[in-house]
Amino acid sequence: MLFFLLNSMIYNLSEVNSEREWWVQQWLDLLDKYRFKKRLERGRNYARKGNVLSIDFKDQKVLSDVQGTEDEPYHISLWLDNFSNEDWEFVINTLSEQVIFSAKLLAGEMPTNIEDVFAANGLRLFPFSLQEIRSRCSCPDKANPCKHIIAVYHLLGDRFAEDPFLLFQLRGRTKEQIIEALRERRAGDNADSAPVEVSQKAEEKPIKIETFWKYETPLDSSLVVVSPPMQNETVLDILGLIPSSNGNGGTSLAKQAATSEQVRDYLKQVYATVSQNAISAAMGGSLTDSEGASTDRTEFEVL
Amino acid sequence: MAILHGSWRDRESCFFLWGETWRRLETSVSSDEDIADNPFALNGRELQDLLDRLSKTHQLAVTETFQPASQILLLPSQTRKEGDRVPQHSAATPDGELTLHPWRVEGFHLDPAQAVELLHSLPLGQLTESESFVGADLQFWSHVARWTLDLLARGKFLPGLAVRPDGSLESLWQPLLDSATDTDRFHRFAKQMPGSCRAYPDAETGVSPSPQTLLRRFLETFTDTQVRQHTGNVPLPPLNSPVKDWLESLSRPSPRVNLGLKQAEPLATALNTWIAPVSSALSGENQFRTAFQLHPPVENGKDWRFDFYLQAADDPEFLVSADTIWNHAVDRLAVRGREIDRPQETLLSGLGLASRLYPTLEAALQTPRPKGCDLDPIQAYEFLKSTRWRLQENGLGVVLPPNLENVEGLSGRLGLVVRAEPPKKRAKLGLKGLLDFQWQLSLGGKTLSKAEFDRLLTLGSPLVEIDGEWVELRMADVKAANEFFDERQDDLSLSLEDALRIGTGGDTQTLGKLPVVRFEASGHLQALMDTITGKRRLEPLDAPQKFKGELRPYQARGVGWLAFLERWGLGACLADDMGLGKTIQTIAFLQHLQERDDLDAPTLLICPTSVLGNWEREVKKFGPSLSVFVHHGDKRPKGQSFLKTVKQKHLVITSYALVHRDLKDLQKIDWRVVVLDEAQNVKNPDAKQSKAVRQLETQFRVALTGTPVENRLSELWSILDFLNPGYLGTPTFFKRRFAIPIERYGDTDSLQTLRSLVQPFILRRLKTDKDIIQDLPEKQETTVFCSLTAQQARRYQELVEESMAKIESSEGLQRRGLVLGLLTQLKQVCNHPELLGLKNRKNKATILDRMTGGSGKVQRLEELLEESIAEGDRALIFTQFAEWGKVLKAHLEKRLGREVLYLYGATRKVQREAMVDRFQHDPQGPPVFILSLKAGGTGLNLTRANHVFHFDRWWNPAVENQATDRVFRIGQTQNVQVHKFVSTGTLEEKIHDIIESKQALAEQVVGSGESWLTELDTDRLRNLLLLDRSAIVEEDEV
After folding, report:
1. Domain boundary among B773, B802, B830
2. Does the interface ipTM go beyond 0.85?
């Protein structure tokens, strides 16, 4: 007879939780298609063993040093084809049409339909094949990609997970440039970008003598009973897995994911233990009579 | 008692703990040049002693290994007339101009782990003044420490990795203040932080940290310390470095991580990525957050509006609309005096996070400048019921219009409006008596017919608007309502007790599973409800014709109140302050019943033995129309003869001891009223006397007590359970529902609920109340009649007989000497029989063992002191016997558990001044001061006292008044009560009567001191001294 369902709000957190970010996965998948499996494996080994000494983003290029078999590390650069200024104008126009793109990006997430934005302008954000990724290595190996490049390529996935805007940078626009351009689009004709007067410093907080010895506030009622998190959901569920951090231990993808999950499971147990211990500490710790420990507020029934 | 203080010292990463006690300041204590020691601060040893003591008495978590330290504190200080400067004692009432001035203070440095333990072991609620050893600063941090436990329990913390300035790595647990609850708490605590927490200027900059900084650093340190303590033994999964090293370090007390910077860098990067969505909450820089405001549909519309804003973190009402944000393509935006950093991006990242938590939003974000979106009724309902909590818990703001805020509250709920009235026949209803009542269904404050209710259901919306208020139709309520219409409404009953609970707004009440949202009383039930909820002022009752005396206006209201509750058969606790006249209100009330012809059975009054005589006297004096019988003594009637004696009397007075012993006889009578005087005597519900009084049959119960009964919960339960059995539930229920939350955690909500439940039955007026104080004289003298114990009486009689024989056979000077000697001895016996010859006795322990049991006056003094101290009053006690002062001091110190001052002839001048100064100025000083009449009767200024006890008498009012004037002089701001002790049946009572009677003799008495006694002839002297046997008291009671 009643009409509404309460439980339609089941949040699908698994998407956030258990897998790699989709855009990182897509980047790495590209690598997996590489035909020369042996070289691929050697490159991954390099990544795992810490041979990649540095990765820097310089303008639209990735610059990296990789320790090879010689004493001096090899210098690697890696880049994608840049979009023209005109293309970017179009892309930014499209991005500005839906605020969700910026919102997700600024919350550290690549919108799942980002490729639609580029497709609408006849472009692709992600390289379609390995060949689209331009690279150069100072090693003697003629093959491209060589194992050094593969090692760098592999580790780039983590950097993208960290900052989805980096992919845009490889295509020719930095995060700041994009943000700035989008702001202007949004403000449109109403734009009012007059500089804001810089406000005074954080105000001085003198010590008040009248209340120097006064604290008559009773304990906040909501702190009387200390209770576990709502629906047993903690920040761990919101943040999901800690991204792979095996910068110098880049084992197989499967193994990396397993590590992240182990860490997550461990932390979950720690959070649960800390929560229980804190609750019992709040009840007075030594308090043994269970009757005293509970402070339920059941309705006052006629006794 | 000394006071503990302390605060967090961020630079040293330690908690500084110190103690303060009031001391008399002898000389100039602060010169301008150096920083002087704070004269009120405890030194290291005194502080350790205090902590050791508190660890025993209050289970304070104290270790021996606190590190001694010294700190400079900025404290409010005053420049005295002498030109020197003194700090203000923290408990003193400030007067004069205060400035902050540095002082050196000794104390202890506690490391975070020690501080955690200490702070959690402090009492969280406010203690009574005498017990409050927790300073404002320490109390504040104990509340913040409790908050950290709440953060831990709710998983509001995150692991991290930090690089120290020396390049080493440390793991850390950071508090995560992202939820609305915690940001609110943060701002609230920062605002409430007392200045004393920030009294520690930085050694280098001389600046005190801001409340926000200090609070944040405290939270960070204490979160980290406690999470490490509580991680327990969760097994670490097999992992590789560096994750393994990091996780290992997180569960150890020491934060050090043995990793090189290079090794750790990828981990650090990964962690930064991981926490990105909540990083602003971690850094504490979230001055603005994305917020959502829900608006109900406008006229005839169906859809709800859901708007986007930026909201100031410290002011929920400071909202900036999305439109404004989109219009400004700037890095910083100034709005109404505030500045928003990266406004668009702040709003956007909030929207991004929200869309993760609430996917419904995604659709709304597919436009260039969204200001909000529409929600259908079901979506709005879901948002209100669950999503909003989820958003708030994760750092997003939610704003509801006022007409939606009650959606969770009772007033909006589907429930019952109940109209009740007492049954037509006018018998005394009593708590369990059933009322006549009708009910109607109500939603959002409007009554509904069955048809209207059915129509609402057909709307198909879980949220419905009733007169502009939005209310929720809960499934369970709808079901209960349907059953209500369908079935067994006739089985429902409503007792007066139910009505009281509902009407006083105690805990939620339901009737047949539906909440009672409104309760309307009609007929004289309405008068009852209005009176007990304080809506109607108490009707004063004119003093009964035969009442000999005058009722002050508040007393007339008190009598009216007793009569009012009596009509309903509800037990009443008259808990007026000492000195406001509970006795005469009770007498007038009984006479009122008599006047109404409603005193058809005898009334039983039970009191401590020490006041039996006092009661009898007061009844004879004020209510002579009442026939009294004092049931006590070894010759008291039993069985049939008891019944026969008692049936003819209006009032039977007996003691608590006898109630238990003679219960069988007492139970045979159907008492008209049972009155417990000094009802705190039944505070232990398991004591024999407490059980006995519950078994007496009566129509109306009254409890009289002067102690602040509402603050002593077990006592409150016990008294209320006597008055209105079952009303506060079983002891176990009461303990769980009220005593523990209130006493252990200082829970004000529970306290409020309890107050409203008991308030109808307790009338407590304070002598400081505005409309009472004007009814009271500035100085109020009462004679306190105390009975003698059997031992006292025996000794008294022996003395009289021995001495009278000698007096008869002597003359002249010798006779005079003998008479005066006898007088002194008799007075001593009235104080305590063993006071005779005490001076020459070596072992004084025997008398100390029998102080209370040996003397009626001591018993009464203890009762009165306990009451006055509980009210925060201070008292002087005058005696003319120096030896007596000594034993009384020793006895009262033991009995009250507090220091008692004693000043007499042998007290040296310096000590004398010190005592007076301490009594007058020490905020936590001893509340009782004994003085010998000779040494303390003149010259001193002791205006802080508002009670004066004349324990023994010097029959010269001039001398007594002079002593009383120590208190009643310029500087006295309170009403003063003078208690003159008189032992009944003795010469004390007879002389008292002579003075009162204003005979010619009285003038002689007043004029000449005691010498007139020596002039009396032997017969008259004997008559005067002879003991009136009926005034003796049982001894075996104490």
Report:
1. B773
2. no
